[in-house]
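Board work, copied verbatim: Geranyl diphosphate 2-C-methyltransferase
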Amino acid sequence: MTSAELTTAPAPSALRIPGPATPYQGDIARYWDGEARPVNLRLGDVDGLYHHHYGIGEVDTAALGGPQDRESENKLIAELHRLESAQADVLLGHLGDIGRGDTLVDAGCGRGGSMVMAHQRFGCSVEGVTLSAKQADFANGRAAELGIDDHVRATVCNMLSTPFATGSAAASWNNESSMYVDLDDLFAEHSRVLKVGGRYVTITGCWNPRYGQPSKWVSQINAHFECNIHSRREYLRAMADNRLVPQAVIDLTPDTLPYWQLRATSSLVTGIEDAFINSYRDGSFQYVLIAADRV
Ligand SMILES: C[S@@+](CC[C@H](N)C(=O)[O-])C[C@H]1O[C@@H](n2cnc3c(N)ncnc32)[C@H](O)[C@@H]1O
Ligand SMILES: CC(C)=CCC/C(C)=C/COP(=O)(O)OP(=O)(O)O
Ligand SMILES: [Mg+2]
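↓ predict structure ↓
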């Protein structure tokens, strides 16, 4: 083997499925391969759980430093991270009774923070897929560092066409990753991979049909992330068409606003904060959790 072949050879744990299915997926793979925003990396550095989703819950003001506190920036970062991990905890809490022998699927796993949390909570195996080779390598590297790479694995793969056996997963989820795909195709694949009686959970931002059409803020979020936010109605319709029966639909909008208001005061702002705050406030956009049973 030449040195060039050696450097491009996949890590033993990283199963690679070749090529994005569409030019759009190629763009998304490049986007996440190139992503290195401090608002994500510095939060992940707090405890080694790297998330690409937002936070929920009340801000613990006692945990924040005052204006004279030289540690105030680090405290603010730790608090934002605590709220993001709290979001993942809520998602995992809706997966149902998961045993150590079960396998879970994280569709659009990012850098793998939720996968690690799922394994630590249930002792089970977790298979994640992402379009980004950089993210998969990062997630597999973290799993190896934690000594859990025998249970937690990220694969470079399209979530609409995964290598997982039909009926093999006890539960599966999308954490802020469903706005990159067609929902009918997505739920058809979850429905295939889940065992009957298995649980599907998503936390997502969706536009509110009561507003009428996607607002300018929603369009701004789409442009910022190169994604395509769906309406709440689209989620429920596509689930119904794919043997996924909702057991809980929870509006997390009031729970995520404190995270955004705190984030807007930090030095790590990215410029998208006002679009989230304004659209949550004018009712055009909602942050929701939907948990559904595969029937
Ligand atoms: C906002 S990040 C969310 C990451 C993760 N769920 C989390 O909570 O940290 C979106 C993720 O969706 C993934 N993604 C988007 N489209 C995908 C597709 N068609 N197949 C697999 N992953 C996809 C991206 O690669 C990225 O990892
Ligand atoms: C709720 C919606 C509409 C989410 C869109 C998907 C997305 C990009 C999520 C956060 O990723 P990130 O953690 O990389 O973003 P940021 O850098 O803004 O923290
Ligand atoms: Mg983030």
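Residues 37, 39-40, 52-53, 176, 179, 205, 221, 225, 227, 229, 270, 272 surround geranyl diphosphate (ligand 2) (CB under 6 Å).
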